[in-house]
């Protein structure tokens, strides 16, 4: 696979972000519309009560070359969850898929904990207006921690294949304090679930479907899947589980795996997906990929340095 | 008609020596009958930490089968460990319900975690014992029943039963966190799920017991007992505000069903209320009904939701 980089196509510092959000356009997720591509992303406001972040979902409409911004949403497309709910403190990311006339948004909801920073779970919200606004199906999650997936279920990416909804998502193995003076860090892996209606899901409980390349402490995140010429390709990001935020040698890179049966995945990311130039917007980190097809071309959206603090970029598949 | 004849308080955790983790509280009694004793599981607490926060452990006391007021022994250690860092049961295991399954004993318990915006969240865990219920091993690090679409938080108070080869779990699920005098308090209702193996559960997805005293009534401890062709549920309920005293505190309610899913509530038939004075004069709660040697008993909590232990009552009349 050879990708041509299009550069940072959305610079979030050049626009007014909705909902009192100042920075970040994380985890871009494309919804192809008639005239444009609507790209949902998570952006952050500051919680005035304690200075922590609250992630909100907004979108930017881009022309189909992904080179020009048409407009940015004026409001978040979904409110945060109520008191004590799984998505009270942020939605990051929200992955979208068309189903009939509706758009299903699978949210990764964040709620803060005391002994560790956060717990996550996956919710469902539905849009009847092409993604301008989303209504929750319920106040709780459709996929959450379970017997052998003890924490941090999130990053759901859903596609209908045949008669079945498939979800690729991540589950936490646990939290660990790597040295006494640091906050606990977590490790998560990519899993798979199926559903007949997109609401009630059957997990392949705790089956890690993508092998580790960095060893057991590799964290894998945000899977995205596309079928190209009869073969399924998954992109995701992976990193070491600690000292990954500022140490570029241990930070996120984009991984790749392929499957012909949606069950067995072969990891194939020994070589970087594309060239990285020192000092560039994505030189230290590449993360949160989203792959989609538009007018016969396959695009990859992703974030660069600092987890997407200043926007996202794109690449187009050449061969 | 039936009523419960009170026999008095049978167990006082403050009387137990040498167990720092069992300083006070003996909450949500649940029994397992052995040849010569009745093992009563309960949840207890060490003293609160510097921040006033509690953790809770599960333990048991063995009562002599021939004289339930004679204590034969108390668990030397908690029957379950607390969960690890970031796990759903890191800060407490309360309450617990047990059942025999062949050679093993299965326990279902509420696992407590601490949250930032609300004080806690609870999900239901499962563990098994191969040593007659002295120690339990968790089936996994995560819950068997967790937050879901229409049960968004606080899944607690599990009561495990088997009827007609099917596993039944009655439990409570939170529907709202209500701010009461600056403090977030959960409003919860009685729910139910069924399973063919006790691990993979199908929820009924509805409230089983209608509210009676107010819309935000909290309901807990749905304890189901089968007798004379009818299923009898004893539970407890309270108001959503100022419930830590006598006026709005817990009382025991009653509902009956012939099919385990449709329940008819009639608290006037519960047959038990607060006493004029003594250990259960302000509230009665967390009922558990069990049968031993031809008698039917109710174990229940009194004032301060079991801080000073639990008592027993014996059935006078017939459950029908």
What is the general shape of chain A?
A: globular
Query: How much strand content do the residues of chain B show?
Result: over 45%
CATH class annotation of chain B: Mainly Beta
The CATH topology name of chain A reads: Tachylectin-2, Chain A
Residues in β-strands, percent of chain A = over 45%
Number of discrete helical segments of chain B: 1
Q: Under the CATH scheme, which architecture of chain A would be assigned?
A: 5 Propeller
Q: Could you give the distance between the termini of chain B?
A: 8 Å
Number of strands of chain B: 20
Helix fraction of chain B, binned, reads under 10%
Indicate how many domains the architecture of chain A comprises: 1
Structure in words:
The complex is a heterodimer of chains A (319) and B (320). Chain A is built from 1 helix and 20 strands. Chain A has 319 residues and is mainly β. Chain A has one domain (3-317): Glycosyl hydrolase domain, family 43 (Tachylectin-2, Chain A), CATH 2.115.10. In chain A, strands 1-20-19-18 form a 4-stranded antiparallel sheet. In chain A, strands 2-3-4-5 form a 4-stranded antiparallel sheet, with no helix packed on it. The mean pLDDT of chain A is 95. Chain B is mainly β. Chain B has one domain: Glycosyl hydrolase domain, family 43 (Tachylectin-2, Chain A, 5 Propeller). Chain B is built from 1 helix and 20 strands. Chain B has a 4-stranded antiparallel sheet with strand order 1-20-19-18. In chain B, strands 2-3-4-5 form a 4-stranded antiparallel sheet, with no helix packed on it. In chain B, a hairpin with a 2-residue loop joins strand 11 (166-180) and strand 12 (183-195). The longest helix of chain B has 4 residues, at 303-306. Chain B is globular and about 50 Å long. The N and C termini of chain B lie close together (8 Å). The mean pLDDT of chain B is 96. The chains are: A mainly beta (319), B mainly beta (320). The interface between A and B is large, with 38 and 38 residues.
